[in-house]
Amino acid sequence: MLLNYNKKQNIILNIKKKINQSLSIILLNFINITSNEINIIRKDISLNEICMIMARNTLFKIAFKDTKFNCLIKYFNGPTIVIFSINSYSLASKVFYPYKQKYKGKINIKAISVDGNLISLDLNKKLSFLYSLKLAIMYFIFLIKNIFIFKIFRVLRLVINKKNI
Fold first, then answer.
1. Residues 104, 31: contact at Cβ < 8 Å?
2. Nearest to residue 115, comparing CAs of 76, 85, 77?
3. Per-residue pLDDT tens digits for 43-97
4. I want to staple 127 with a disulfide (CB 3.0 to 4.6 A). Which of 16, 51, 93, 109 is the partner?
């Protein structure tokens, strides 16, 4: 499909907007994957408030220039999908990790950047298991409640034992 100058500028502006909103970005290389498989991934990703964009590498390079994620420019070669995580550092990695396992060999991670810093691909699995801030706070509150309840039971047990003596 031929794109005129205005359409290309709109695509670049859209990508720049996503870059500025993003906390983390994942670049994917896809080989021998059907459009139906990509649509399934895209549908699941959009349900999780993550954005996935496919465009020409030259448009990506122009959009990423002079942003905090410009460290990713050198990875735009070959077929590339860009996943933007807007609300959480690890959400994109969490959502994408099962697809990486399912389509082993068809989809590979080229690079991951968190707040403009490249991270090791080995850390991707660890990143995918990080808690979001909301979930971490919920677990912390649950832990504090349980500790408090167990302390009350322990004190009550001591009081009851002392009365029996």
1. no
2. 85
3. 877 777 788 888 889 999 999 998 889 888 999 988 888 988 887 777 777 777 7
4. 93
Question: Measuring CA to CA, how many Å separate 47 from each of 43, 112, 129, 151?
Answer: 6, 21, 19, 42
User: How far is the C-alpha of 158 from the C-alpha of 118, rounded, in Å?
Assistant: 55
* CA distance to 5, 34, 81, 164, per residue, from 30 (Å): 27, 10, 7, 72
User: Whole-prediction pTM value?
Assistant: 0.69
Residue 125 φ/ψ, nearest 5 degrees: -65, -40
For residues 59 and 112, is the Cβ–Cβ distance under 8 A? no
Q: Is the separation of the CB atoms in 86 and 17 below 8 Å? A: no
pLDDT tens sequence across 108-157: 888 888 888 887 766 555 555 555 666 667 777 777 777 777 777 777 77
